[in-house]
Amino acid sequence: MARSFLARRYRSDLMGVALLAVAVVIGGSTIVKSYHLTMLIYSGIYAIAALGMFVLFGIAGQISIGQAAFFGVGAYASALAATHAGIPPVLAVAGSTAMAAAFGWLVSRPLLRLTTNYLAMATLAFGVICFILFAQLRSLTGGIDPGIVATPGFSVAGFDLSSARAMFFVVGAALCGTILLVLNLVHSRVGRALRALKGSEVATAGLGIDVVRYKVAAFTLAAGLAGLAGALFAYFQSAFNASVFSVGLSIELLLMVIVGSVSSPWGALFGALFVTILPTFLEDFEQYKLLIYGVILTVVMIYMPDGFGSTVVQLGRRLTRRTATP
Questions:
Q1: More confident position, 221 or 243
Q2: Where are the transmembrane segments (predicted)?
Q3: Which of 35, 90, 114, 212 could form a disulfide with 118 if both were Cys (CB 3.0 to 4.6 A apart)?
Q4: Per-residue pLDDT at 322
């Protein structure tokens, strides 16, 4: 019974990935305004990083406020590889993702000795340290002013894909691949072990599961996905500086998962879209942006523990059942 339910759920998730791919093709072919394309591209890039945060926080239950550091590692590594080493974009993106994942594996060893609020504070300090390094190593990163400029456009096998419409398809393909990876993880034995880890580390260890190994694996995957998002961001943004990778970005990624859903990877897409579009309504309140994010985060965690996206879906299902019931 349980296996058949999981199989049906996995099939529905695969159908969702297929529908997402179709939506990417249709959207990239029909959307005319460049502003709308740009907002969707940023949403897709942040959704990839948010899916990494979902693996770490939503599945494994580990809080990290330092994901912006891995996002920055991916962005700078891909930009420097393209501008100084002349490495092809695809290889630069793959290498940047691997570098961010390796960096995540390295720092996870000491950080994951901590739990709950102590882990959050440690990752926050780690993120601040990396931001300071990004800002101060001007010979390498360009610092805050002027930063890295004129990153070459994205291309594959000599085909120029640097336009907004082409990058929409590139980011869409990367997003589909990422969510397929995360869905397979969720439905695998590793995913079940991570969910057990979220419930109780002591009970999980008592079942013979290597707690440290799985925590490090979740942290490494989250760092790698943040690095992938950062690499795509560098190619699309072309010019950026260290101010992008502040603690605010880590808070936004956490907000995407909590607002979307902490129980389903699909919530990361909704959360990324919501948080990306939200600043357009807060242009007159820029100095209060983090405060507003904090209020939203608090309200959702108290009144919608499964996330705003999941709550909306559940309400829709209840309304549908009431309408269908005579």
A1: 221
A2: 12-31, 37-57, 87-106, 118-137, 166-186, 216-236, 266-282, 288-313
A3: 114
A4: 65
